[in-house]
Amino acid sequence: MAEVSLVLIDRLLAISRALAGHIDPGTAFRATAIEIGTLIPHDHIDLAVLSHDGRMHACYEAGFHTSWSELAQHPVEGSPIRFVLWGKTPYLLSDNALVDDRFHFAGAFDEPIFAAKLRSRIIVPLRARGSVIGALNISRHEIGCYTLADVAVAQQCADLIAPYIFALIQTEEARRAMLAESEARNRVELLRVGASQLTEGMERERRRMAMDLHDQTLADLARIARQLSALRGQGVARAAQLADLEQEVAGCLTELRHIVDAMRPSVLELFGLRDAVEAHLNRSVSKAKPPIAVRIADTSDGGADSLPEPVRTALYRIVQEAINNAVRHAAPHRIDVLLASTASVLRVIVTDDGQGCGAVDPAAYGGIGHMHTRAALIGARLRIGQAGRKNGGTRVVVEIDRQPSRELAAAAVPGEFAVSEAM
Fold first, then answer.
1. pLDDT by residue (tens digit) across 200-209?
2. Which residues of 231-267 are buried (b: 16+ CB within 10 A; e: fewer)?
């Protein structure tokens, strides 16, 4: 008996040494599986580790893998070993798990037991800080391989590895929480800076619109008013004079329509993203010298028009800026716009064959910075890079999930003024 105890102690020390130095729970467990096998021979061994709320569990397998470890987590209520995980039984010992009703019930995730022919089974709890945190599961293909003495040894192995595995899991969760918090802070800072830049750009746009109205439209209307006053004083107006006035009024109306369209994209509201982009594309290249060929293709089956209005508006502004940058700065011969979607993602791609944009800084001021800010505000993914053409060119790709969160949709557009800055 003393000799047996010494062998057990030696093997437990070997398990302890196998744990040392590992920082990943799965790697640490696999390192101990061989040593556990010298005490309890097995064909399959795994750890089921509970989530912090006890409702789910993850599986770490050694040797061959089953579908238990293919999913990140499983509901405990569907686990064949749920009574051990819930602490309702101190262990499970089975001579043939294929026909053992304790492992099979309505909704049980028991397929691996049959697929891997796991007949003889030992399941003992992992405990840390006085609570069950998971279970150690040991199996063989043959029937009737294990006894209560093996259960006792398995429990000693579980008691040895449980605190170490628990510490590794806690460390990993703390690391993930720290990374998530850091990423959240970075996103908040990006949105804060971007929203500030966007607001500044919108203020500049408002001032520009006010100057346009004052210097152009209001001046034209004042001149028309003076001409009408002069005609009234004369008591008669010739047809040519009325024609001139009519032409000037039409010019004022055209100018006002341009300003209003810039403030609120009515085509987008009335006809959808595809028509709004096409209208802006044609308008942007209408006076280009030399001429710029354009093409727009829509394979999304109207996917954009199912998005909330603020999200559609932000998408339109991003595409609008991409087109403006190509026309103003890239000297392209051609601009292509593609709208495409899957069941979950909408994608808009603007490609030109111009001079290219070089390296792009997402934190830059001006139009590109505003594009990144608008994308961040609606949870979209924006990429700006080379088009892959021999002679250069730029490709702008914006992707967004077709069911964005309400919070992102509500924050998508802090104002409805267009901001079309230079690169």
1. 666 666 666 6
2. eeeeeeeeeeeeeebeeeeeebeeeeeeeebbeebeb
